[in-house]
């Protein structure tokens, strides 16, 4: 998870620069960090964060990408013996590197992939295996395999279940050696969702479709902590984040150097 701290007037704070701020949905002068959180069915809480320093402040030799910071956070959690077996990330982090990293750590990865990601698939007309983008697969599945869609129930905020249609198969992503289960979900997660189709993958090919979806949707525990803040932040700059920023105090520091910010 990307954790930004707005610093609109900070000119000398290390790492602060004009960059995309997810809280505002636009560019703003801010610091950014990658945060890890523990999530289960009953609870969720922040674990740690690592500051992201743009390459022009660190140089090419010392620069660490957000993906590299995420991998370090996972390694740190393993060293601390935190009781987890799955990693859940959104499509921004679903790189071949992270998929293979999770597999090498014997961790299950449940993640969403972007619509332009290429997946190995048997074309229903030519019967040939080829890499097709998810955007190309959606109409093919709807046209040729509607009889193979399976209904899965997912929980909603009001305590009710929602039935969604899914199509799954074992395959691999282009440029990735690890075999994955691919799941197309032909519906919105909830009324608040703005996407009609979601494409998930999991490195546990024996995991049921419903278990893979519910594992991925554990992200809701963290998203719900941010959603009221995101709405408020877009309406004005007076804000207070629940949980993550209260715990990390990432928006309250008055120091300028990363060593002090991180501590």
Layout: helices, strands, pairs:
Layout: E1 2-6, E2 17-21, E3 26-39, E4 44-52, H1 55-58, H2 66-79, E5 86-89, H3 96-104, E6 108-112, E7 118-122, E8 129-133, H4 134-144, E9 150-155, E10 161-171, E11 180-185, E12 198-202, H5 209-216, H6 220-235, H7 244-248, H8 258-262
Parallel strand pairs: 5-6
Antiparallel strand pairs: 1-3, 2-3, 3-4, 6-12, 7-8, 9-10, 10-11, 11-12
Number of domains: 1
Instruction: Please indicate the percent range of residues in DSSP E strands (runs of 2 or more).
Output: 25-35%
| Main sheet makeup | 6 strands, mixed
Helix content: 25-40%
Low-confidence region ranges: 3-10, 225-263
The sequence of SSEs as H and E is EEEEHHEHEEEHEEEEHHHH
* Named CATH architecture: Alpha-Beta Complex
Give the CATH level 1 class.
Alpha Beta
The DSSP helix count reads 8
* Structural class by helix and strand composition: alpha+beta
Number of strands: 12
Structure explained in plain terms:
The structure is a single chain. The protein is α+β, with helices and mostly antiparallel strands and 263 residues long. It has a single domain (2-262), classed as Transposase Inhibitor Protein From Tn5, Chain A, domain 1 (Alpha-Beta Complex), CATH 3.90.350. It is built from eight helices and twelve strands. The protein has helices at 55-58, 66-79, 96-104, 134-144, 209-216, 220-235, 244-248, 258-262, and strands spanning 2-6, 17-21, 26-39, 44-52, 86-89, 108-112, 118-122, 129-133, 150-155, 161-171, 180-185, 198-202. A six-stranded mixed sheet has the order 5-6-12-11-10-9, with helices on both faces. The longest helix has 16 residues, at 220-235. The protein is globular and about 55 Å long. It starts with a strand and ends with a helix. Residues 3-10 and 225-263 have low confidence and may be disordered.
């Amino acid at each position: 998870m990307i954790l930004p701290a707005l610093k609109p007037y900070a000119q000398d704070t290390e790492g602060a620069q004009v960059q995309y701020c997810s809280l505002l949905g636009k560019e703003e002068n801010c610091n950014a960090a990658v945060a890890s959180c523990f999530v289960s069915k009953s609870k969720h809480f922040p674990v740690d964060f690592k500051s992201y320093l743009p390459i022009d402040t660190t140089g090419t030799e010392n620069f660490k990408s957000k993906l590299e910071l995420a991998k370090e956070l996972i390694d740190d959690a393993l060293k601390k013996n935190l009781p987890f077996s799955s990693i859940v990330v959104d499509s921004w982090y679903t790189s071949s590197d992270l998929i293979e990293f999770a597999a090498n750590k014997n961790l299950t990865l449940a993640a969403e992939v972007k619509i332009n990601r290429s997946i190995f698939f048997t074309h229903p007309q030519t019967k040939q295996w080829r890499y097709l983008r998810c955007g190309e697969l959606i109409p093919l599945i709807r046209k040729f395999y509607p009889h193979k869609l399976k209904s899965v129930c997912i929980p909603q905020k009001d305590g009710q279940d929602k039935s969604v249609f899914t199509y799954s198969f074992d395959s691999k992503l282009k440029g990735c050696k690890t075999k994955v289960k691919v799941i197309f979900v032909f519906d919105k997660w909830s009324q608040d969702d703005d996407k009609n189709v979601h494409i998930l993958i999991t490195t546990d090919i024996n995991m049921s479709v419903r278990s893979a979806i519910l594992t991925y949707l554990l992200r809701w525990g963290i998203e719900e902590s941010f959603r009221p803040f995101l709405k408020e932040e877009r309406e004005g700059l007076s804000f207070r984040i629940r949980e993550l920023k209260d715990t990390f105090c990432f928006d309250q520091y008055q120091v300028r150097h990363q060593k002090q910010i991180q501590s």
